[in-house]
Write a structure and sequence with these properties.
The chain is mainly alpha-helical. It is built from 5 helices and no strands.
Length: about 180
Amino acid sequence: MDNGHVDEGDDDRENTRRGRNETTEERADRRWTELLQELRVAQTGVQILFGFLLAVVFQPRFATLSETDRTIYVVTVLLGSATAAALIGPVCYHRLLTGRHLKPETVVWASRLTLLGLVLLFCTMCSALLLIMRVALHNRLALWLVGAMALWSFICWFVFPAWALARSPNGRKDSGGGK
């Protein structure tokens, strides 16, 4: 019989490795709190970037941009909007499901939306950087600089965590988003 504690069978071994003795609900509460902290960091960056992007179109120099640069701008604004939606989504998801005893499922889906938001943020940052470098440099060096920064960001955001997960003896068991 399940008494709500995560201490039976495989979960017991997982608990021992993690050093936690918490119920499913307690784990969901902890993961939700951790996710909210992560979202606060990401959302602040997105809000600043998106605010900057929205203001660009109203600058006098915007009218002098080439058709390619305007297209990059539109794509960047759309990516920024999609990023904001994905990173705000977990809050709405939680708010609509609060009190329905779905916290563990909410945390899993909110974690997935957050990861999607981070991928979109990566794309938004690369696109915004491309626009800025094209306007600032007017040459192919812009593409190389953006490519280098995209690679660096990808390594910092995704490769290092994947490497740490692969090196961890129990990294594949508990990825933070769910079972």
